[in-house]
Amino acid sequence: MAVKLLHLNIQGKSNLERVGDFIAKELPDVCCLQEVYEENISGIVRNTGYTVYFSNMNIDLALPPFGLAILSRLPSEEKENFIFAFSDDRYHDAFSWNLLGTEVISENRKFHFMTTHLPVNYPGYEMSPFQLSTFEKLKTKLADIGEVIFTGDFNSPRGLTSIFDTLAVMYKDNVPKEVDSTIDPVLHRAKDIRCMIDGVFSTPTYKVSDVDVREGVSDHKAILAQVSFI
Q1: In this predicted model, what pLDDT tens digit does every residue of 69-83 receive, in sequence order?
Q2: Do the beta carbons of residue 124 and residue 143 sit within 8 Å?
Q3: What are the distances in angstroms from CA 76 to CA 50, 52, 109, 203?
Q4: Is the pTM value of this prediction over 0.90?
Q5: What is the tens place of the pLDDT at every residue in 50-69?
């Protein structure tokens, strides 16, 4: 028994055809996506049988709904949506920081998936006070979650910053150590930057295997994996 997982920051409207083609080809059982416009989800899933769970991070009602999405081709239960922080910095006006989750059912067992997106501080190597305070609020919420497969764009490079490395103490970091960047070298605007900022973490209940990091889908690399129980 294994559930095929995709984690991917899709970069809003910039890569919709590539992302749709990739999902249609790979048909992950569960997709954890960031930077998603709600209006574009139907074009991404293309009638492939996904149930969609969406979390809007734009708190300005004049702006189109934009945020996180979890797609499931397996039977699934109602979404969990937690707002753990609000933006107060110059990069993210009228924005909330959310944690989206659901449980999917495979062979009568429940798999708990959650995903998030944390704020950025350009150029990305040094953490701002706002990033650190937002992460502290996320940690408080995670303490109540229990067993989980947890993905995210953490905007915090592995091995260089406290946020990613703290998560790697709290959970098992399942992206192989030889992967030194999840920034796509062609599609990202900063083509020469090497930052391992996307993660797939898990608690001891779960085994994450066959992790495969792919280029050419979005400005971040796609992470595919198989999730099963220990």
Answers
A1: 999 999 999 899 999
A2: no
A3: 10, 10, 11, 20
A4: yes
A5: 999 999 999 888 889 999 99
